[in-house]
Amino acid sequence: MPSVAGVLGTDVSLLQSGMGGVAGSELACAVSDAGAAGCAGGYKLAGGALSAMLARLTSGTDRPVGVNLIPEVVGPDELDRQVAQVLDETPDRVHLSFFGMPHDAVFDRVTAAGRHLVVQVGTVEDGVHAAARGAVVVAQGIEAGGHLLGTSRRDDLMGALRARVPDACLVASGGIGSPGEAARALAAGADGVLLGTAFVVAHESRAHARFKSAVTDADETDTVITDVYEIGWPGRRHRVLATAVTADPGQPAKFIGKTLVEGKPYLVPRFSAAVPTEATSGRIEEMALYCGRSCGEISEEVSAADVVAAFARVLAGAEVVNTEEKAEHHVG
Ligand SMILES: Cc1cc2nc3c(=O)[nH]c(=O)nc-3n(C[C@H](O)[C@H](O)[C@H](O)COP(=O)(O)O)c2cc1C
């Protein structure tokens, strides 16, 4: 079984999460240029705004890089349009990354186009299904920052998934803020790791400066799982830094700020699912500050290349170690 790096064509089996609003083309390109798999957040981008982002992404790096889409946020018809646009407007080295399962027709369309798929899941069943359809599977544990796809701890999910699909390409996600934690994820059966929060604080991330400093100041006891930031993405629990809004969700849903998305202005209501970016102003501390338990190990803002270099030492041997462990397991 090829390594994550082998499949995606990167040097390191490390994926950066395509975080909507936070992960623009600057972060994705910097991560890919450093030898890992960068990924730009597609979120609700469509039409000319999506084209502009894709153009920046593909002109910003000549390395493998991804575009992240979220099936449950946009729905099947809009997802089809987004997928078609990405396939039409990007070269083959651009892979598609999905948060949650797309329909089978999407898997077929992407693989028929010769592109790699990365699918983040929260259950063994979804992981088995995505692996059978050729995806690199990201197993997300409840330690993760952002929206949560399941209810299992990261290493438990990985262990159960690895037992079902021993030869699949599996990536661990959730609560990984240090090379030591990445090593634990590899020991649990992962071929590589995906980081979200660790890249929120990268210089190239578009997260608002006060969001970045809240993450570097926090430890894991400052995060909570809630469902209050539901405007724009209802019905899914998420892990965020505790705020005055998570403490008192009974407040009125009035506007607390404004922002720009690809140059277009929007008002930000209290309870909005949108993260505060460098283009956001207002009551930043009350907005959705998605953050994993990994924040306990993240204490400074660094460049994306520094993050990749720090993890590369641990991840370089991932394939060798896991192949040996799997061989022993099979023999035993
Ligand atoms: C600020 C933030 C925004 C996120 N947005 C997305 C997103 O748009 N798409 C996606 O696939 N995952 C998103 N995630 C979730 C990550 O893919 C991943 O599950 C999580 O970051 C892993 O845990 P960690 O933050 O402890 O590394 C987001 C995470 C964070 C912290």
From TrEMBL:
A Pfam family per the record: NMO
Organism: Streptomyces echinatus
Keywords in alphabetical order: Flavoprotein, FMN, Monooxygenase, Oxidoreductase
GO molecular function terms noted in the UniProt entry: nitronate monooxygenase activity
Family annotation (InterPro entries): Aldolase_TIM, NMO
EC number(s) recorded for this UniProt protein: 1.13.12.16
Protein name per its UniProtKB record: Nitronate monooxygenase
PANTHER family membership: 2-NITROPROPANE DIOXYGENASE, 2-NITROPROPANE DIOXYGENASE-LIKE PROTEIN
Enzyme class: oxidoreductase
